[in-house]
Amino acid sequence: MLNSGQVRSYGPDGIANNSDDIVYPPSAPVVTGTVAITVKTISGGKTVVDPNGYRVDLYYANSGVEASVRDGAKPFTFSNVPMGLHAVRVVKTSNPNAGNTMVEDTVVVRPGTTNAAELWF
Asked: How far is CA 106 from CA 57, 62, 84, 93, in A?
């Protein structure tokens, strides 16, 4: 089996997946990261962290096609996100007829890292 980002030789015996195979690099490279979003707003003169009634959408390219994931539960965390520049949107869900976008921004995902962002509205 060929893993993403690795080169495999079947070795001297020409049989796949046994002890004489040569694989470089030995471990598959990490090409994903994690995105953690904190939503903040001000209500009654106080900062409210991750208020109820919101979700976070993350948009990214998947083989050249737009893909997205949603997180409607706090804390807003996305794992195994492909590396690159991604759009983030906070959407108000407490009014089902509204579906209002409250704030949008971008985040850069680097391999093997967790990227944290605060989005204020």
From this structure: 11, 17, 10, 21
Tokens standing for residue 101: 């976008």
Which residues in the chain come in under a pLDDT of 70?
Answer: 1-4, 95-99
73 contacts 116 by C-beta, under 8 angstroms: no
- Start-end ranges of CATH 2.60.40.1120 in the chain? 32-120
> pTM of whole model > 0.90?
no
Tens digits of residue pLDDT in 33-68: 999 999 998 989 999 999 888 899 999 887 788 999
59-76 burial, b if ≥16 CB within 10 A, otherwise e? ebeeeeeeeeeeeeebeb
Class of the 32-120 domain?
mainly beta
The answer to whether the CB of 86 falls within 8 A of the CB of 8 is no
